[in-house]
Amino acid sequence: MRSVPEDNLNAQEKAAFAALPREVDPGHPTQDRIVRALKQRGLLDRPGSSRGALWWIRAAAAVLVLFGGGVAVGELHAERRAERRLALAREQDRREAAALVQRTGSEWVAAVAQLGQIPGRDSDQALQGREVAVSALLAAVTELHQVAPNDPFTTRLLEAMAAGRPDYAVRGIQPSARLIRY
Question: What residue spans define the domains of the chain?
């Protein structure tokens, strides 16, 4: 068994210990000194006092900075996502445009082939079909020249087609003197 000093006390010593106060009031001077020291260190506010206006201004500024930073970061990410989506959409538009040109060109060739099957090549119907086919080809070559104005093949093709149609004026294209007719 463990021995504690209180266990070895006689009855008179035990009565003296029991008579001692369990709590001692330090008095007002000691309390005042402790409270003053805590206030000086900023660890204790005065009862009923609120935070100063400067503290609230700082807190509001911090909130605005955090909110503004969040908005800026969100906008940056949104802008990057939008740029990626736009680039993907443009790429898809290019592919769709190329596929549409391919499909339309194939349909035009098939229609011209059917035009050659019309009996009586000098009939009004055949002449009108050839005129429409040539006009469509000339319009397509003109658009192609707008897409690639520095392409020599497109320029020569447009010159050749415009030379055969005096009523068709093409901006900036003069028929070449070296035009070869076939």
Answer: 50-115, 120-182
